[in-house]
Amino acid sequence: MPEIEVRDINNAVRGSANLPDSIFGLSARKDILHCSVLNFLANQRQGTHATKTKGLVSGGGKKPWKQKHTGRARAGSNRSPLWRGGGAIFGPQPRDYSYRLPKNLKRRALGEAFSAKHSAGAMTVVDAIAVEKPRTKDMIRILKNLGFEGKSVLVVLPEKNDNIILSSRNIPGVKVSRVTDLNPYEILTHQRILITQGALDRLPEVYKI
To answer: Do both 166 and 71 map to the same domain?
Structure first.
């Protein structure tokens, strides 16, 4: 079972923590990570795009001209897709892009994302993160002490903490997430992972990996 140093917010080593092999001992399979990332991005799509068909465009209630003896092509409506201002043919319509992945695949992808970050030395465990009140300056100081200045960071907490969320939301590239809300996409797209020991201990329980 691999181990990792546990630090405080001043970057001093306070001890070590065991990392469960079921999460941090996996060899990365790009196909599983690829499926998980595509699923996450598809589920974020609103699917509200729409174009008007002939039946949705206003007007067109009167036949433009009589059927015969005009020398022009037959026309039944000035809202025809062949006319300027008419409806669209086979245009996009509102739809739901979301789909579900098997639970085992989702859990495996999450473990592989964590394993990849740990193998790359891009994960830091701290004993706790605490700010007395919402203050961006305090969070910037913590990240600077840990060597995260100028990097995108995913901060993982065991529970929701409004002070930390409000202190971090104006810092570019920093996102705060509860351990129950993690997904492989956010783990992989941030340069560093900052996780508290409390959140680390809850990983096997929450995801049953």
So the answer is: no
